[in-house]
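Form P-L/3: holo structure prediction, ligand copper (II) ion.
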Amino acid sequence: MRLQSIALVGSLLGVASAHFHLQYPPPRGPFVADQEVGFCDGYVNSTTNRTEFPLDGGIISITSSHPHFTFGVIISTLENPTSFRNFTQAVDYFVTESAGGFCFPVNLSAKNLPGVQEGANVTVQMVFDGGDEKLYQCADLTLKQAATVSSDVPCVNGTTTSGSPSAAVETGAPSPTATTGDASSLSALNVAGMLGIVGSVWAVL
Ligand SMILES: [Cu+2]
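OUTPUT (holo model):
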């Protein structure tokens, strides 16, 4: 009985705690669900293994456990930004529907931001709001006009809809774990989130 209710709490909260997961460019470190409400998912320092990222023609790829969310990207040209004040808007906030994978093209030079140029070391911070809290993950980049995105990078869109998102929901959009494409890593993410929550509930008991 007790174990069952713990498992139930774990699975209910696990979905919420999975939030969103940055796939590309690679985040600063392993995903930490509990820290995603904080600056750079709790990773406060820049990494030394920066990803060479196209100045134009890049992509951002995430998985999301929330089917409806607001997303934006902020950027800092400091070597080691430590505060949200060090960032400016690189991709304006938009609202979308996509359960499972979500991937979109990004042109970081589009806004002509000072310092966002060939060879620059920058940090991009993803800002995600799926209805529970604002969530953050960071990636440290070196911008290169000639950089390319490897074809190994997962770039899939789950149940992305254009025009009539509510219709898609009514016709029964597949749940995140049932989505094709990047489903395996997403269910792993959910399992990890569940285990984390079950662990903490157990600790409280
Ligand atoms: Cu969430």
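COMMENT: The first strand starts at residue 20 and ends at 24.
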